[in-house]
Amino acid sequence: MYRPPLPRLLCAALLILLLAPAAASALPRANPVPGGVALVAIEAPGATAPKAWYRERRIMVLPDGTSSGRWFAVVGIALDAEPGTHRVESELADGRRETLEFLVVSKEYASQHITLKDTRKVTPPPEDLARIRDETPRIKAALRHWSDSDLVQTGFILPVEGVVSGNFGLRRFYNDQPRSPHSGLDIAAPAGTPVQAPAAGTVVETGDFFFNGNSVFLDHGQGLVTMYAHMQEIRVRPGERVRQGDMLGLVGSTGRATGPHLHWGVSLNDARVNPELFLPETTAKKPE
């Protein structure tokens, strides 16, 4: 694995800290770790937003909230990203291109062991595997959805009040069998509790999926998609536009769940990132 020399690492780390000024409060909080978000500054005078790409995928670009001509590439970093120097390609309105670097810092996530009585949800039989294969392309397409938008609301509110029962990034074991890291935030709440949109968006997919149960996917623009799983009931339809605070459905325990809760996921440029970075502060109660 490539490791840049120490002086360059220190410079990159300082750059990341400087790229999140207090004035840009609408931007997600920078935390350049696997499963986090990096804010990379692009100097582009004028009102036309530059374009940017990371790992050959288009990424979000937002203004810094001042008249300085500075924009930010908002980069979602996948959970399996290697620590070290990463690169963003930018293109200004006049066609000029530039390569910008940022540092991804390593992070170790905790483990969680979950016991399920329904062993089908741990080792699905052939008929369930066929259903999962049919559902997977729909889920992937929703999570990587891109729509151009100049008005992206990245200042989120919590989709449901409750207790955090599963933190983002946990290395999960179901009945002692290792599975993919936890790609969202679990918030436990009584069945039937309303689930609200944390920000304005458009419903791009809904459905009852094998693992995720009743789920809704919201497109917020520029590669920012949020997911709401295990719901008891869905109250929106694909193509519907919702405002911040509108009801999406009700908390439930459908799919692979041990009790009523909401799995809330955030996908940014098709990378699953920590939803808490989009909150001004986490108001859900932490586990005791």
Automatic annotation (TrEMBL):
<dbReference type="InterPro" id="IPR050570">
    <property type="entry name" value="Cell_wall_metabolism_enzyme"/>
</dbReference>
<protein>
    <submittedName>
        <fullName>Peptidase M23-like protein</fullName>
    </submittedName>
</protein>
<dbReference type="InterPro" id="IPR016047">
    <property type="entry name" value="M23ase_b-sheet_dom"/>
</dbReference>
<feature type="signal peptide">
    <location>
        <begin position="1"/>
        <end position="26"/>
    </location>
</feature>
<feature type="domain" description="Peptidase family M23 N-terminal">
    <location>
        <begin position="31"/>
        <end position="107"/>
    </location>
</feature>
<dbReference type="Pfam" id="PF01551">
    <property type="entry name" value="Peptidase_M23"/>
</dbReference>
<dbReference type="InterPro" id="IPR011055">
    <property type="entry name" value="Dup_hybrid_motif"/>
</dbReference>
<keyword id="KW-0732">Signal</keyword>
<feature type="domain" description="M23ase beta-sheet core">
    <location>
        <begin position="181"/>
        <end position="275"/>
    </location>
</feature>
<dbReference type="Pfam" id="PF18421">
    <property type="entry name" value="Peptidase_M23_N"/>
</dbReference>
<dbReference type="InterPro" id="IPR040487">
    <property type="entry name" value="Peptidase_M23_N"/>
</dbReference>
<dbReference type="GO" id="GO:0004222">
    <property type="term" value="F:metalloendopeptidase activity"/>
</dbReference>
